[in-house]
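Data availability (excerpt). All sequences and predicted token strings are deposited with the supplementary files. A representative entry, 6-phosphogluconolactonase, is shown inline so that the format can be inspected without opening the archive.
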Amino acid sequence: MAWVEHRHADAAALADALAATLHRQCERALVERGKALLALAGGRTPFPAYRALAASDLDWSRVTAMPTDERCVPHDHAACNLRGLREAMAGARGLTLQALTTRDGNPDASQAAARAMLAHHPDAFDVVVLGMGEDGHTASLFPGAPQLDAALDPARADGAVRVDPDPLPPEAPFARISLTASRLLHARCIILALTGHAKRAVLEQALADADPRRHPVAAILHAPSATVHVHWSP
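Structure token line:
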């Protein structure tokens, strides 16, 4: 396990640092490999960084991004992460955004579609940006979900799994499609971005207790081959 902490004065400073890191990693990928592949969390914390990144000077025609996880809702639904990413990254002309769900959000069809899409993108992600909930979930790897063990299985090669949170979050009571832990860890740079003292306390618990069934984010934090850059602000 290796993790590097980056503390910021506030959420705006965190967003600035995250945007700079994303830009730097994309530039490096374009120089070294001619393309960049990103997996991006939804949520309030990283979206200002995505907007800043989209306004930067990159050859976006060679960049592909996808959500780390998605709610099984239609693509025009307010809860759709793809919709949020599309709006935040609107300035990135030429960027390819890949969906983890079908247009109607059917969970089983979406799982099959996500796996087929990922088969066309077998390379390591250049950057993975993750968030974390106060229950210790990351992406849509929720504690207590019946599919959690499958999603955490390091031998899984299909890359994505349907997740039914139990209980369903009242603010977003939907089935999900999530990248698996092994697919998230197949990355050159892993970033965990979070704000607030409540989430800081959960982070400390996950660092002290490696059981991912209690805090699924521990599967990322304690992965032996990964270095996780934790960006935190009050």
